[in-house]
Structures are given as C-alpha cells and as structure tokens.
Amino acid sequence: MKYIGNFKDWIKQEWIDELLSSKGMGRFKEGPQPDSPVMQAQWVKAVKAGYNLETEYFYMFDKSNVSFKIDPPWCNGKNFHWWITKMLPGNCMPIHTDPHTEYESNSQRYWVPLQDYQNGHWFVYNDVVITDYTAGDVYQYDDSRDPHGAINVGITPRLILQVSTSE
C-alpha cells in the first residue's frame, strides 16, 4: 500500500458520533448478495471455511444511511463512491476482494482510518497486518483487486472509510 498523506482535519467529529450511535447495515446478514461469479466464489469459500452468512460480522454505512456527505479531497474530481465499515469488538471481515473492482475502469482504492490505531484494530492487506496508523491517514492499494480483510480484537468499535475511484 502506498501512503498518500494525512487528512485528519477533514474528518468531522459529527461523523464519528453518528457512526458510533447508529447500527448501519449488518453484513453479511443484511445487504446485497454476491452479484458476480468472483464474489459468489468468495462467499462459497467463506462458508466452506466456517463463516455463517446469517451473522453480522461488520456494519456498513454509505450515502443511503448517514446524514452527512463525503467528498474526499484526494480524489481530485474523479468519479468515486465510498462506504464506511464499523467493526465492533469481536467482529471480523474475511479476506476478500471488492466486487466493483471487477467492472470499474482504472479503479483505485483508498483505505482511511477514521480513528487513531487502537490495540486490536487490525487491517490485513496482501498478508501484511497494518496497525500503526493515525486517523485521516490515506493509503492507496497497489492494485484495487488485492485481497484484504480486517478484525477487531480490541475493546472499542473500529471505523474505516473506504473510497474507490474510477474512470
């Protein structure tokens, strides 16, 4: 992953407050089912490994279920979409790739923690565990289709902004 810079001053405390006080969409249990052969294969693999798709492993937020608007300054006018994941203590996200990267042209992915690193808030990217981060750090994936996952073995909720740009 490539470090782009820190945008902590851009993050609003109201966002954090709303995210921490709201449920979001429970994933895997709620939300869309896999809509591509690659994603279906990943779900089958997760189920065979023991994941229960009727369980809430993390919670998602996007423009449809928050009151605020996000316009990332590092996107420089490119088309983008975003989502936020909230992981409660004990939540996890299996290693996966993101479905939109299969059909977006020149997709670029960004990972942005909305909080400073707290013990147990781990992000796994290409078999590397990322832990030493600060709220607002912007990291760009080397390849938007790289495998990644996350786990919260800490004692506080974990909030991460994900942004994807495309042409």
Radius of gyration: 15 Å
**Strand sequence of the main sheet, in spatial order?**
1-9-6-11-4-3-2
Instruction: Catalogue the unreliable spans.
Output: none
**Helix percentage range:** 10-25%
CATH topology: Jelly Rolls
Principal-axis shape: globular
Order of helices and strands: EHEHEEEEEEEEE
- Count of extended strands: 11
Mean pLDDT across all amino acids: 89
Roughly what fraction of the amino acids lie in strands? 35-45%
Oligomer: single chain
Number of helices: 2
Within CATH, the superfamily carries the name Jelly Rolls
CATH class: Mainly Beta
End-to-end Cα distance, whole Å, is 21 Å
Instruction: Indicate the CATH architecture.
Output: Sandwich
Tell me what the structure shows.
The chain is mainly beta and 167 residues long. It has one domain (2-166): Jelly Rolls, CATH 2.60.120. It is 13% helix and 37% strand. It is built from two helices and eleven strands; from the N terminus they run E-H-E-H-E-E-E-E-E-E-E-E-E. It has helices spanning 13-21, 37-49, and strands at residues 2-6, 25-28, 56-61, 79-87, 92-96, 108-113, 121-125, 128-130, 137-140, 148-152, 158-166. The strands form two sheets. A seven-stranded antiparallel sheet has the order 1-9-6-11-4-3-2. A four-stranded antiparallel sheet has the order 5-10-7-8. The longest helix has 13 residues, at 37-49. The radius of gyration is 15 Å and the shape is globular. It starts with a strand and ends with a strand. The mean pLDDT is 89.
